[in-house]
Specification:
alpha+beta; eleven-stranded antiparallel β-sheet; 5 helices; 11 strands; 25% helix
C-alpha cells in the first residue's frame, strides 16, 4: 500500500509540474522588452550546406520586432502589427507588400506569447517544465498545412530556439543568445 501511495504521489507531483501552453505564454509576457543575438540556419532542398545568417534582434511587446542581420549582409528590419519596415537611406520604408500578413502575425504572436492568436490556427502541445520547455505548433487548416509542417519552440524564461519545418521540405533554425532585458541603445531599435 505504501508503494502505491508513493507512486501516486510521484505521478501527481510530475503532473503538477508539467507546463501548459498558457504557462509558457505567461512566462514570455513577463519579458516585454528583450534584445540579444541570433543565428539562423536555413536548410533548403537540393543544397548540401545550410545558408547561415547572424545578427542582433530586439523585441518590444508594444512595438514589435527589430531584426538586424550582420552576416552575410547588413540590414535592419522592423516587424510590427502594421507590417514590415526596412531602414534605408536614413528612414523606415514600408516593405509590407513583400511579406505575408499571416507570417507577420504568426511571428509576432509567437515571440510575444499571444497564444489566443496562435490557437486560432495551430494545435499547441507543450512538454517540459518552467525551466526548460518545448512547444510544438501543428497547423489546423489546410491553407497553413500547405506551407508549414510544424514549428517547434524551445525555451525557459524566454524563447531560445525556433525550428520551422515547411511542408515542401525546407527547414529553418533560429538560435537566440546573449539575451538581455530591455532595449538596446540603438535609437532605430526603440519605440
Amino acid at each position: 500500500m505504501r508503494k502505491l501511495l508513493a507512486i501516486c504521489s510521484l505521478l501527481w507531483a510530475l503532473g503538477a509540474a508539467a507546463i501548459t501552453p498558457k504557462d509558457i505564454a505567461v512566462q514570455l509576457q513577463n519579458n516585454p522588452q528583450i534584445h540579444g543575438d541570433f543565428t539562423q540556419l536555413r536548410y533548403l532542398r537540393g543544397m548540401s550546406e545550410p545558408l547561415e545568417s547572424s545578427g542582433n534582434f530586439a523585441i518590444s511587446a508594444e512595438q514589435g520586432l527589430w531584426w538586424a542581420p550582420q552576416k552575410p549582409f547588413v540590414a535592419l528590419l522592423k516587424v510590427s502589427p502594421r507590417g514590415v519596415l526596412q531602414w534605408q537611406n536614413g528612414r523606415w520604408q514600408d516593405m509590407s507588400q513583400q511579406a505575408g500578413n499571416t507570417q507577420v502575425r504568426l511571428f509576432l504572436s509567437l515571440l510575444g506569447g499571444d497564444w489566443d492568436e496562435l490557437e486560432s490556427g495551430f494545435t499547441l502541445e507543450a512538454q517540459g517544465d518552467i525551466d526548460g520547455w518545448t512547444l510544438t505548433l501543428i497547423p489546423k487548416y489546410s491553407t497553413l498545412q500547405q506551407v508549414l509542417e510544424k514549428i517547434v519552440v524551445r525555451g525557459d524564461q524566454i524563447i531560445r530556439e525556433i525550428d520551422i519545418s515547411e511542408a515542401q521540405g525546407d527547414r529553418s533554425e533560429l538560435h537566440f543568445s546573449d539575451v538581455t532585458r530591455g532595449l538596446p541603445d540603438d535609437p532605430r531599435m526603440r519605440p
